[in-house]
Amino acid sequence: MRKKSGRQAGLVHPGEPPLPAGRAVFQVEFPAPTAAKNQALEALLRALEDAGALSQEADLFPARLCLDEALINAVMHGSQYDATRTVRASAYLDARRWSVVIEDEGAGFREEDLPDPEAQENQLEESGRGVLLMRRFMDELAYYRGGSCVLLSRARTAPRQTSVRTRKGIV
After folding, report:
1. Is residue 124 classed exposed, middle or buried when 0-12, 13-18 and 19+ CB atoms within 10 A define those classes?
2. 3-state helix, strand, coil in the chain (%, to 5)
3. Continuous segment of H or E residues that includes residue 159
4. Which among 6, 72, 151, 171 is least surrounded, fewest beta carbons within 10 Å?
């Protein structure tokens, strides 16, 4: 039996999520089986890259990790792999940050029922660390509609400047 966190840190809210700032750069709706989830993840990442949100290679790892985890949670926990249920993902971009909203048709969850990933008895479990990872890598992570909708946001990084080395130094 997994030890539950028993904590509430204001992660889950009953109402609707706020509309993220900026322009919509991606929207998709797909049935819950995982093959569709993988296609949606790749299309979402591509859209964020094309829009300039993931301007450095270092931006891609946390984005892929957290968006994949949020989509897996929507498919597995929210939709229970039920192909008659739909998962929706939308991405938004403004000058300072990118945001993604992922929605499922599930009942949501209670924050205090999340497994405690730092508890000794949970450390060898294969799952139960997704929310912890998303909290660490995202600037904002909040669940709405009782847990069936997640909003993830992260600040944009400046595009990497390339330099040219000359005899006189770096230009």
Report:
1. exposed
2. 35, 25, 40
3. none
4. 171
Q: Would you give the DSSP letter of residue 104?
A: -
Give yes or no for a contact between 117 and 128, defined as CB atoms under 8 angstroms apart.
yes
Global confidence as pTM: 0.86
pLDDT in tens, 139-165: 999 999 999 999 999 999 876 554 444
Going by C-alpha positions, the residue among 118, 123, 122, 109 that lies closest to residue 11 is 109
Distance (Å, rounded) from C-alpha 103 to C-alpha 143?
10
- Run of H or E including 142: strand 140-144
Distance CA 143, CA 25 (A): 21
According to DSSP, residue 167 is labeled: T
DSSP letters, 29-46, are: EEESSHHHHHHHHHHHHH
Indicate the helix (H) or strand (E) that contains 148: none
What is the per-residue pLDDT across 68-81, written as a single tens digit (0 to 9) for each? 999 999 999 999 99
Question: For the chain, how many residues are written?
Answer: 171
Tell me the percentage of the chain whose pLDDT exceeds 70.
Answer: 87
Considering only CA atoms, which of 119, 121, 145 is closest in space to residue 132?
119
